[in-house]
Design goal:
Largest sheet: 6 strands, mixed
Radius of gyration: 17 Å
Number of strands: 13
Structural class: alpha/beta
Helix content: 10-25%
Strand content: 15-25%
Distance between the termini: 17 Å
Strand order of the largest sheet: 5-6-7-8-12-11
Length: 240
């Protein structure tokens, strides 16, 4: 299976009607598309997000989980309803069996921690409440591939408590500034300076977490840190 993950668009626009972004997505020929939060921004108009959402479901099945900015907008429920009108399934602390190319796997999606607490801009929610939300996945079976869509990568030790094989996240924006081979990221929200999980692939107790560097472009320059589409090819071992 080829899985494609997008995160942290923040309603940015890449060419007329998102033509540049869509061209790259189509080129990858994904079997499933995952959107891991902050596709919509709390301040920027939603046009860029809508242009993307109205096109991607024509390519492959699409699943969405929230980021912090959807809740910071104060209109989270309205945003989720809007996303679903385009045929994108929003996963809110739930799981389902997805079948792609006759291959079934368990797909889980969790709300960003900002769903807890005050939900006001600048509030990243409550870690304890987030941990309790994740606890609902403890009964997942280990017989087939289990994938978690989340927004926040720094909770990797919590994700590893459950039978997830693959976790896909965003949020860190690639650490904003990078020095290839020396510095993987300068600063990221909730991780501070020199974030450990800024972008890339991390293996933790047999679980793989992949952190997308996101698609946001704003006043902060991205140095050696271009916007990123994440493509994950899942290949079976052939063993039962």
């Amino acid at each position: 299976m080829r899985l494609l993950m997008l995160s942290d668009l923040h309603s940015c626009i890449y060419g007329e009607n998102q033509c540049q972004l869509m061209s790259r997505i189509i080129r990858e020929q994904p079997d499933c598309i995952f959107l891991c939060g902050d596709i919509v921004d709390d301040k920027t108009p939603r046009d860029g997000a809508k242009q993307l959402l109205q096109q991607i479901t024509k390519i492959a099945p699409c699943y969405y989980v929230s980021g912090n900015h959807e809740f910071w907008s104060g209109q989270a429920d309205e945003i989720f309803d809007m996303i679903e009108t385009y045929g994108v399934q929003v996963l809110r602390n739930e799981q389902e069996i997805v079948t792609i190319n006759d291959i079934s796997f368990t797909l889980c999606g969790v709300d960003d921690p900002a769903a807890t607490g005050t939900r006001r801009a600048g509030s990243y929610g409550e870690a304890e409440a987030y941990q309790q939300t994740l606890a609902q996945f403890q009964s997942l079976g280990a017989e087939q591939l289990c994938v978690l869509l989340a927004h926040r990568p720094e909770y990797i030790d919590e994700y590893a408590k459950y039978p997830f094989d693959l976790v896909l996240c965003g949020h860190a924006h690639g650490g904003q500034w990078r020095i290839p081979y020396l510095l993987n990221g300068l600063i990221a929200p909730n991780q501070g300076l020199f974030p450990k999980y800024a972008g890339g692939q991390y293996v933790y107790d047999g679980m793989t977490e992949i952190v997308g560097r996101g698609l946001a472009r704003d006043w902060k320059p991205r140095i050696f840190n271009p916007p990123e589409i994440v493509v994950v090819d899942v290949v079976g071992t052939g063993k039962a």
